[in-house]
Amino acid sequence: MKVIGKIIKGLLVVAFLMIVCVSGIFIYKGYNMYKNAVEEMSIEDKVNEIRAKENYTKIEELPDIYLEAIISVEDHRFYEHWGVDVLATLRAAYNDIRAMSFVEGGSTITQQLAKNLYFTQEKKVERKVAEVFMAVELEKEYSKKDILELYVNSIYFGNNYYCVKDASMGYFGKEPGKMTEYESTLLAGIPNAPSVYALTANPDLAAQRQRQVLEKMIKYKYLTSEEAEKILE
Predict the structure, then answer these.
(1) How far apart are CA 222 and CA 48, in angstroms?
(2) Neighbours of 33 (CB within 10 A)
(3) Which residues are within 8 A (CB) of 194 and not within 5 positions of it... i.e. 6 or more apart?
(4) Cβ neighbours of residue 139 under 8 Å, at least 6 residues apart?
(5) What span, in angstroms and rounded, lies between the C-alpha atoms of 44 and 41?
(6) What is the largest CA-CA distance in the chain?
(7) Burial 117-128, CB ≥16 within 10 A → b, else e
(8) Can you tell me the mean pLDDT for 94-123?
(9) pLDDT tens-digit series, residues 41-60
């Protein structure tokens, strides 16, 4: 039994060392990806590029319920973390390992902004690592208000709408600030899977997603159940 125990301990040590080595390789590759990206174009220049868009919308021009819906469904600890939600990342890693596939991202709003500014949608470990480095840098340089504002001006809403104003004008025919509570919560659910929830493609699925958004808003105390039901009337 002692021999078997030593063998098991030895295998565990080897497995641990392999994990450390593999993790180190991905961290090294991810850091290089991050460094190469910011050397090609600085974060400041990228941000200015987004802000220079014709349909860029200031956060003050957006309904509060829309912003609350986005935070509830995308990153409910947005105001608490430093760019990376460790709990969400660990949960996503656990679920990905169980499924042996990228089934859950765990990305914060800041990480999603980093991806939108610099990286592709390709699911690679080193890209996720680069995204983390970029998110931390964004949090150092910009306020939460700035990050949320940049996020809603750089996400995809389906139907070739790449910012909140394009989506609001395209789907509802109105400025974002004039969206109703119903429209705000409906629009907030689309970026999770734009090709699935685009209103022109799958209005029924978009409505189902809206209910999920409202459930999250109830869970995180932005709405009561009665207020959520009234929105859907």
Answers:
(1) 32
(2) 19
(3) 156, 157, 158, 159
(4) 82, 83, 110, 147
(5) 8
(6) 74
(7) bbbeeeeebbbb
(8) 72
(9) 999 999 999 999 999 999 99
